[in-house]
């Protein structure tokens, strides 16, 4: 066995350290080894932070203990629970040196070959750096322990790390006090055995990609039924009221009955899905709020504290939250649908927001999510969104797909006013001018799209296929509908536009779509709130059609 093999085999996740100091030259040599690690596209994105302060170490340890307790509660195995309790990780304070290995997301704002297709590339490069540091320390007679059970948002907050810096974890460095019999710690504790050999499978066949046909015109699932439509209209007109006197309620009742193909339509298991993602264009100051608000609001949704939670509870609507591409690693036990494509799109000011592969994934995931909802028996679905910067994305897509000037498609978004609004408009205009790609839908969506917007568009198409009532929220969801309608114009038959947003471009978009909104309450919150607020009106339309007496049954004379 070569000397390198010995180093590789003896590299361990060290958990206990002696009090011996670590010489500066040892750390310098290890960090240089990390710097020599492969870096995709030479992004040079890895960043290091050294910690020697006892005060900082204690703060990190307390954060670990708090989060470790939550991790312990996730297992029902008493033996594993005891092992978790034993992981106090004294090493955080015990080790002479703490090291944070992180990657800098901001390098993606400058084009480098190899990074356009994957925001994760820089993260993988930093993992390579961590391994090199580990091997260098092992060769020098030192050890390193990786602490990953952390609340990373709090971790960044207490250490005042910039928004663009994403830590892989906290690493303890020092002289190992335990050799674990040359075994990983969990193996020595008989928790889990490491396999004897690597698991490797040879792939011999190629599976053809399922390519979305963007020119697809989906045919109606059933032929037009003139007799059914005549009977439905007669039922509406025979109610004890002057013809047309219930206005929009009559239109809604007719539409629901037509979608569900029954004279007695009933909304079953109504659902609203909020898709959340981050946008690279947000790094250019197009929003009044920092990007981290996306993550914070998703946390608020999960805790039940947002407006959409309140309105869904009020109207007994099932609410689901989708991580379509938030720039954050949520805990695996979060009550969240994981459809993450990447940690946010890239900035479309100079490069494509996503690759065509990522675009295809968005369509696949959006469809899959809605198909699963349909399988629960739900026949009514509303769509909401959350993402700092997504009004900018929606504005550009609206301009490209409608032919309207960008000036008519830009609004306040999350509170942008006056000079900031002009700056936002100028940035988006420049982004469109910089685009030299094809004027085809697929290329435009990949270059300017947002993960949540595309997944919503795909979800709407799936809802149509499943004969569901589609509730469209405000400006951003209406842009998603615009995309869906370019693929299948018949989708309009199933769509209800719940309100006209205070976002100035929404009224123009509704006019373009020939859509009449149910409400006009100056809403511009998003989250699907317009869908939830309009829902009682749909129930009123359902009730009048199903329960209101006819002239004949009530013995009332017609006109």
Automatic annotation (TrEMBL):
InterPro entries: BluB (IPR012825), Nict_dMeBzImd_PRibTrfase (IPR003200), Nict_dMeBzImd_PRibTrfase_bact (IPR017846), Nict_dMeBzImd_PRibTrfase_N (IPR023195), Nict_dMeBzImd_PRibTrfase_sf (IPR036087), Nitroreductase (IPR029479), Nitroreductase-like (IPR000415). Pathway: Nucleoside biosynthesis; alpha-ribazole biosynthesis; alpha-ribazole from 5,6-dimethylbenzimidazole: step 1/2. The active site is at 527 (proton acceptor). It comes from the Bacteria. GO terms for biological process: cobalamin biosynthetic process. One of its GO terms (molecular function) is nicotinate-nucleotide-dimethylbenzimidazole phosphoribosyltransferase activity. Residues 8-175 form the Nitroreductase domain. Keywords: Cobalamin biosynthesis, Glycosyltransferase, Transferase. It catalyses: 5,6-dimethylbenzimidazole + nicotinate beta-D-ribonucleotide = alpha-ribazole 5'-phosphate + nicotinate + H(+). Its EC number is 2.4.2.21. It is an enzyme of class 2 (transferase). NCBIfam families: BluB, cobT_DBIPRT, PRK00105.1. Catalyzes the synthesis of alpha-ribazole-5'-phosphate from nicotinate mononucleotide (NAMN) and 5,6-dimethylbenzimidazole (DMB). Belongs to the CobT family. This is Nicotinate-nucleotide--dimethylbenzimidazole phosphoribosyltransferase. It comes from Flavobacterium bizetiae.
